[in-house]
Every structure is written in structure tokens, then in C-alpha cells.
């Protein structure tokens, strides 16, 4: 006799096994961040055979060579294919009124009014990101090493940072630079793009914490704006016609 209980248990067990397998695949896909750093496409061209020398039959003339179409063979010494990081470099974005910022050679230089009180708010930003402060005074803040997590990296880095401040009149200039930067056992503090990514990233985190509420609220379009524009366009068109009529009237005299 066909036992429905046995069949039911078999189906349940098989479903549980398949669910577990699928969940492993989903976890693997969710943690794989390569798609954010690599070009996704067919790579069959990498297996293309090399071009053979052109064989000219006897008695056939060929055009004269032109340097305009000569393809020089270059030996690439950099990364190729999926080893190339396609992420754009990050740029510093100030959110404080009457301030400006530049990034150069691994250092963010930020100038702002003293009234913005940026310096005293740096410890809060560091604390929110679990970056310890090893020493601080009125002109320098040095952090200890901390793990920095990014959504587009599979392996975290360990970094330390240095903030320095100079006051001139009613403005202050704050610089942000690296103390150290390592990924695993590798020191990557000599890689310009990596340095920029983490130094500017921390600065932008500070600016995000200090951004006024108006930066966080979406711009609401005035419903009367279109009507006002239509009225202005109508007035302009009426004035244009009036000028043309006046000009024609004067020409007829």
C-alpha cells in the first residue's frame, strides 16, 4: 500500500536540502562585490589567435606603407582584464557654507569659517565609525588603527588617520591624511587611488555628519512655478508685439 506519510517526509527533506543549497548560492552572490570593480562582458577575444604575416603573391603590387596606419606593439606592465579596477576616484564634497576643499597627493585640505565648529565635531564622526583616537589637542588629532568597511570591497583595510588644524583670522584650515593603510599583510599606502579612496571617504563622512538639514531634504518644486513662468512668457510676448506695432507705426509716418 502507498504510504503518504513516507512520501510527505521525503518531499519535506528534499525541499529543505534544496533550500539550503540555494541559500548558500545567494549568500555567495550577496558577498561577491567584484561586479562593482570589474567590467562585465565576454572575454573570448583574449583567446583570439595572433595575426599571421601578410603573404604577397608574386607579381602583385601593394600600396606604399604609411606610418599613419602602423600599429605599434606595446608590452603592458600594468593590470589587465578583470584585474583592472574600474571604480572612479572619489572626490571631496564640502557641505559647509563659505568653505572650499582640495585633494592633492594623499591630503585633503579643507578651509571653513571658525563658526562652523568643524574641529570639535571630528571626534563624534570618528566614534560613529569605530575609529579610536590615540592623541588629540587643539591642532592635531591622531587616530589609532581601525578596520574600514566598504560595500565595494571583499576584504577590509586597516587604516589610521591624522587631522591637523591651522587658524588664520576667523577661518580654519583642516588637513586629513593617512597614518597607515594596509590590506591584510600588504601595505597599500603607496597606491594613490587606494589612499584617495579612504582619505576622501573619511572626509566625506565628516561632511555628511555636518551637512545642514536642507542638504538632506529633497527639493520640493513650487506648484505655482509653472504658472508664474507662463505669465512671464505671456507678458514678454505681449511686450514684443507692442514694440513691433509701435515700430511699424513709426515707419509709416
UniProtKB/TrEMBL annotation:
<dbReference type="Pfam" id="PF06804">
    <property type="entry name" value="Lipoprotein_18"/>
</dbReference>
<dbReference type="InterPro" id="IPR010653">
    <property type="entry name" value="NlpB/DapX"/>
</dbReference>
<protein>
    <recommendedName>
        <fullName>Outer membrane protein assembly factor BamC</fullName>
    </recommendedName>
</protein>
<feature type="compositionally biased region" description="Basic and acidic residues">
    <location>
        <begin position="218"/>
        <end position="253"/>
    </location>
</feature>
<feature type="region of interest" description="Disordered">
    <location>
        <begin position="214"/>
        <end position="253"/>
    </location>
</feature>
